[in-house]
Amino acid sequence: MVRKPHILIVGGGYVGMYTALHLQKKLRKGEAAITVVDSQPNMTYQPFLPEAAAGSIEARHVVIPLRRVLKKCSVLTGRVSTVDHNRRVATVEPPEGGPIQLSYDIIVLAPGSISRTLPIPGLAECGIGFKNVGEAIYLRNHVLSRLDLAAATDDPVRRRKALTFVFIGGGYAGVEAFAELEDMARYALRFYPGLEPSDMRWVLVDAAARILPEVSPSLAAYTVERLVERDMEVRLNTRVKSAVDGHVLLSDGDSIHADTVVWTAGVRPNPLPAASTGLPVDEQGRLRCTPELRVAGVADAWGAGDCASVPDLCRAERSLRSGASQYSRDDPTARCAPTAQHAVRQAKRLAANIVISLHGGMLKPYRHRDAGTVGSLGLHKGVAEIYGIKMRGLLAWFLPRSYHLMMVPTWNRKVRVAADWTLAMFFRREVVSLGQVQAPRQQWVTAQDQQKERVLSGV
């Protein structure tokens, strides 16, 4: 009896989940075994995080349980710490217990990316990330708790600090979170009679000369204008030098005292490929991959997504048509950007190429024409650039929702998200802070401590 090959997929994000999803559809029954390993048993649809943080979408509806959608795959919760591709063995560290040695025949490395941070004093202690649903929920609760604090204090300095919100990073994630949460906070203030929108200060800081590098300069400028109209500050060509105790010191010499400092200044590749696999990587620590999504020069190893350096063939062809003398696959400017749009499409091509390789066929290169970018700036406000057509306002707000509703996996999630949006048309925003979820045992521990004190005092 011929042993069926074992395909190991490292990572359950966009690339990992979609690759497994396509493989289980394309492979014949019993043709191969598929295992997906990730530290979380679900995939987060990150474009919905700003709306989840603002309360427009239920947080549970932006995550997709891997075991529910990958019914023909084995899902293992744990962290892959090392890969020995010569021996075809990966070391998996589960949440509890000792490490597991997992053998495989074919490996797909798709651990994605992690937040790109800088050694800024105080940032680790007071900064809040915005890359997963836990951070989105925490940020929502934190913003609403600052409104509660400001309404309860008579100290004007303490109130001003509580109502000051600093976001560092002007990419799509930063701008959308910045705009959505301000929109939510502005709405919530109607339930705080002693507070006015003018009491709040929202500041977006970016080291670049413009925000939203993914869109045209005119749309980026339009976005800044709309934010400024809402009395929000956009500080460009500015770096954060320190954030100790919420005192944000900027490179222009200005300082801002804030209770809320949010870090959305980009991502970097997961360190696994560079540190623990022995596979070829580029200067940024990304796997060197061919246009067919194979790891360069390595058999039975594949890569895609944020951790992979994949040639952008469409950009190369445009460059040649525009008069460039030649195109080098090693040119870092002609690589696919670390976007969800590329990750989803690369996963489809990667899965198809694995099936082709198992059948002994000719692999096909990954190529994708960029459809454009879309983004929300709060309720009924947005910007979009689709196939060169620029849009703004209500239409640009509606398009991102339509696109992401189409792209989010499973009909279960599509219906739930659509229901959230439909209900929001007839009912007001929910502005409830569930701060207890950050420390659910605190009240119980306090009660136990008080009981011990009473026993010791003889009461």
Average residue-wise pLDDT: 87
What are the segments in which pLDDT stays under 50 over at least 5 consecutive residues? Answer: none
**What does the radius of gyration come to?**
24 Å
What fraction of the residues are assigned to beta strands by DSSP? 15-25%
Shape: globular
What is the first-to-last residue Cα distance? 76 Å
Secondary structure tally, helices = 14
Share of helix, binned? 25-40%
Count of strand segments: 25
Reading side by side through the largest sheet, how are the strands ordered?
5-2-1-9-21
Main sheet summary = 5 strands, parallel
Structural class: alpha/beta
Concise overview:
The chain is α/β, with parallel strands linked by helices and 459 residues long.
Question: What report would you give on this structure?
Answer:
The chain has a 5-stranded parallel sheet with strand order 5-2-1-9-21, covered by helices on one side. By secondary structure, it is an alpha/beta fold. The protein is built from 14 helices and 25 strands. The model has no long low-confidence stretch (mean pLDDT about 85). It is globular, with a radius of gyration of 24 Å.
